[in-house]
Amino acid sequence: MSDIETSKEWFGRATRCIPGGVSSPVRAFRAVGGDPIVFAEGSGPELRDVEGRRFLDFVGSWGPLILGHAHPEVIDAVCEASRRGTTFGAPCRAEIELAEHVVDSYPGIEAVRFVSSGTEATMSAIRLARGATGRDRIIKFAGCYHGHADHLLVAAGSGLTTFGRPDSAGVPADFASLTQVLHLDDEDSIEAIFSREGDQIAAVIVEPMPANHGLLVQRREFLESLREQTKKYGALLIFDEVISGFRLGPEGAAGLYEITPDLATFGKVIGGGLPVGAFAGRRDLMDVLAPDGPVYQAGTLSGNPVAMAAGLATLRVLEASNGWGQLERLGHELEIRLRPLLEAAPLPVQLVRQGSVFWLCMQGGPAPRRPHQFNPGAADRYQPLFYSLLENGIYLAPSAFEVGFLSLAHHEGHLDELATALERALEEAGKNA
Ligand SMILES: *Cc1c(COP(=O)(O)O)cnc(C)c1O
After folding, report:
1. Domains of the chain by range and CATH?
2. Which of 242, 359, 403 to mutate to test the pocket of ligand 1 (most atoms within 8 A of CB)?
3. pLDDT tens profile 220-247
4. Which of 176, 181, 240, 332 is the most buried (most CB within 10 A)?
């Protein structure tokens, strides 16, 4: 018997002791069918599975790995920090330095608090918004994901003006009823809601670059209308920058659109591959938090020295190498390579890109700005492409509605590799169509 256990064998063991075999549902490959790959190591742009197969990785752990896997400066920082102790449950230097970085980088932010995930960040920002305004209701948008806190796992009701309904079993309908779900790209419904009930709304939360249900690039005018209406009615605008923060640039999407929110949430990139989230805002708002104010929020491992060191090292590498400029150029190079071959493809597919975030959108016509513009055949068209790319050593997200990420570990040669494999995959898909 071989002493090498295959991915399939490992995953079989996983399904016996972990629900669905995974620690987070999208990893289970349900959207493309088949079993997930069990990975053994990552280095730069590459992943290696337990069988030793190599993949060029464009998932990047769903966003955090902006420098690629196991970047030497991040690993050094993590090793050094852990030798000095993995947690103090007390303030540490790296936490204060990372906080200064966030405050100095992001527009309108004067204070930041660290947590351990993006979910905690948005959950805490909503609590803070409710505490600061004394109002309970919040507005979110269909197609935006803000982690899995109860009041954010809410889908649109049957009509635009109905209250939200729970998007998950276990979420009380009463919680969901405090969350109203609107369409992206629609200023009119925002104005209508605010003119009717603006004085009851604590906050509007939005991904300014929605990247969790395809990449739904928004018009500036839409985001501007959120800013205007919230300001007019004394509600807070929360930019969920868990993906876009420190990925589009040090100012996130707020800098790109030149719109300053009241609160912003971070995760992914600022943790440099370790579990970190953060929420931040103006001083007067952040002072409403305990211990100075009445809104409670806490975390045993928050501001953890090892995680803070990874985040800090990541931001330092990005700054020292003009990483964001390089990533934008790389994104542009990707576009140059993929556009012609996608245009010539035997099935409808287009590239949507913002900076180093890209999405293979499996439909023609204008790029969608909200989920209800999705073409129903998209997921079916993606599945064979995904598997063909995988066979050719390219790891894209196992879902038609997840985006891809470029990192500073990717070079033009890797983009060529992706383009060649994609061209072949599209040809095969054309033959089988
Ligand atoms: C990933 C993500 C979250 C949740 O972060 P976790 O660390 O997975 O809890 C929240 N908001 C956005 C925009 C995200 O992309």
Report:
1. 7-70+322-432 (3.90.1150.10), 72-320 (3.40.640.10)
2. 242
3. 999 999 999 999 999 999 999 999 999 9
4. 240
